[in-house]
Amino acid sequence: MKNKSLVIVGAQWGDEGKGKITDYFAQKAKMVVRFSGGDNAGHIIVSEGVRHKVTIVPSGILNPKVTNVIANGAVINLPRLVSELEILKKTGVETKNLLISNRAHVVLPYHIAIDELQENARGKNKIGTTKRGIGPTYQDKVDRLGVRICDLFDPNFKARFAEIIEFKNRLITKVYEGQALDFETIYQELMSNFEKIKNQIVDTSLLIDTAIKSGEYVLFEGAQGALLDIDHGTYPFVTSSNTSANNASLGSGINHNLITTALGVVKAYCTRVGTGGFPTEQANSIGEGIRKRGNEYGSNTGRPRRVGWFDAVALNYAIRTTGLDKIFITLLDVLSGEPVVKICTSYSLDGKEITTIPPLNADYQNCQANYIEMPGWNEDITKVHSFKDLPINAQNYLNKIKELCNIDILGFSVGPDRQQTILLEPEF
Ligand code: GDP
Ligand code: IMO
Ligand code: MG
């Protein structure tokens, strides 16, 4: 039963290349399960020279033999899901192999409106959300006011939905002084999109449990990253769900013992979109150079990503709190050309040296990064096929990360294409 299920999550602040790595492992898998987040995610997958983008559709979709599952822990914006499927179909991707949990929550127009209104109300304390309504949808889930996919089959749904919208309109107009939404328009749009995916809705918990127990190889795909986790991330500058590998079982409704290995995807440097502490940030020409070479602009919102040096304190924290067994390092090619590469090994806070992330945002904002410096490399590494093909300085860089974080590196990636992926444990 070795490696019969693998969880793949981001181990930094998102955009680590999870989509690419999930697509890579999906070539050998039977099922890919997306277990958290919504269309706040944005993954670019390049296969056979074609660039695809997914937000809520699992990253296994380019593999026609894979069953792709959106599980209960994810939240779904139906019009966005439907249009994403249409775009994929137009580029020749088979989308019939997508199944959707009957227990997943639905992102609705009032969630999106409230996300925007809340952000505006926060003024200079803005989180910098993707404005996809994710926070308000998870808020309603916890408040037991959410709409689940299964509710759309309920003959009494329309009346309940009307009550919810009436309540939300009071909130929008009286508290946030925004524009009321029209119930009939929202209801008709929701039901017409529901009709288009209705036949793909099932009890995904049962499906996943059966697949693993019958020996199939199942992947679990997280969204965002460990440091955006609602419990363990850099709160309040986080997303509204548990992005952790530990949430894979809860977010898909299976026994945690059925999950064999947790893999963290890690950029060879750090990026962050939105507000919040970022001790290794390089808001200078180094950061700009990396942003340009790495094309570090949000695939979802187009925002330039903030860029910084590799942070071993943050990764060690992520390894512990999200329960990682191995890491996969991406975008190593982007560091080519840096004369010196730096790795943060501790922070200084109020004159003390610390090696973990403090809970208070004000403290995290004040952390100064302490670095080790290593000589960089100039060679183009985008065509290497093995570890030993890498320049010695790039080898040393990977080995240093492994040593500082005491974790196995399962592989590394040197370009966006599926082919530009090097697995260090071929039997995996
Ligand atoms: P995700 O949200 O974690 O799936 O990551 P994104 O897709 O948002 O961002 C990662 C970006 O890096 C995408 O544009 C990928 O095509 C690209 N990418 C992934 N791996 C590599 C790599 O090894 N090298 C380079 N240059 N680009 C990569
Ligand atoms: P993927 O899956 C990077 C960030 C937003 C903001 C915070 C809260 O592509 O890695 P939200 O809209 O979730 O309420 O925003 O989280 N964020 C992401 N940053 N990658 C993502 O997804 C993100 N999803 C949310 O920028 O700071
Ligand atoms: Mg992304």
Automatic annotation (TrEMBL):
GO biological process, alphabetically ordered: 'de novo' AMP biosynthetic process; IMP metabolic process
Alphabetical list of SUPFAM superfamilies matching this protein: P-loop containing nucleoside triphosphate hydrolases (SSF52540)
CDD domains: AdSS
Catalytic residues identified in the record: D15 (proton acceptor), H43 (proton donor), K141
Cofactor dependency: Mg(2+)
Xref: InterPro entries: Adenylosuccin_syn_GTP-bd, Adenylosuccin_syn_Lys_AS, Adenylosuccinate_synth_dom1, Adenylosuccinate_synth_dom2, Adenylosuccinate_synth_dom3, Adenylosuccinate_synthetase, P-loop_NTPase
Broad enzyme group: ligase
Cofactor: binding comment: Binds 1 Mg(2+) ion per subunit.
Residues annotated for GTP binding in this entry: 14-20, 42-44, 305, 331-333, 413-415
Subcellular location: Cytoplasm
Catalytic activity, as annotated: IMP + L-aspartate + GTP = N(6)-(1,2-dicarboxyethyl)-AMP + GDP + phosphate + 2 H(+)
Binding site for Mg(2+): D15, G42
Molecular function in Gene Ontology: adenylosuccinate synthase activity; GTP binding; magnesium ion binding
Enzyme Commission designation: 6.3.4.4
Annotated positions binding substrate: S299, N300, T301, G302, R303, P304, R305
Pathway the protein contributes to: Purine metabolism; AMP biosynthesis via de novo pathway; AMP from IMP: step 1/2
One CC-aspect GO term: cytoplasm
Domain of life: Bacteria
Binding site for IMP: D15, E16, G17, K18, N40, A41, G42, H43, T130, R144, Q224, T239, R303
Keyword set, alphabetical order: Cytoplasm, GTP-binding, Ligase, Magnesium, Metal-binding, Nucleotide-binding, Purine biosynthesis
NCBIfam families found in the cross-reference section: PRK01117.1, purA
Assembly and interaction partners: Homodimer.
Protein family according to the UniProt entry: Belongs to the adenylosuccinate synthetase family.
Role according to the record: Plays an important role in the de novo pathway of purine nucleotide biosynthesis. Catalyzes the first committed step in the biosynthesis of AMP from IMP.
Listed name of the protein: Adenylosuccinate synthetase
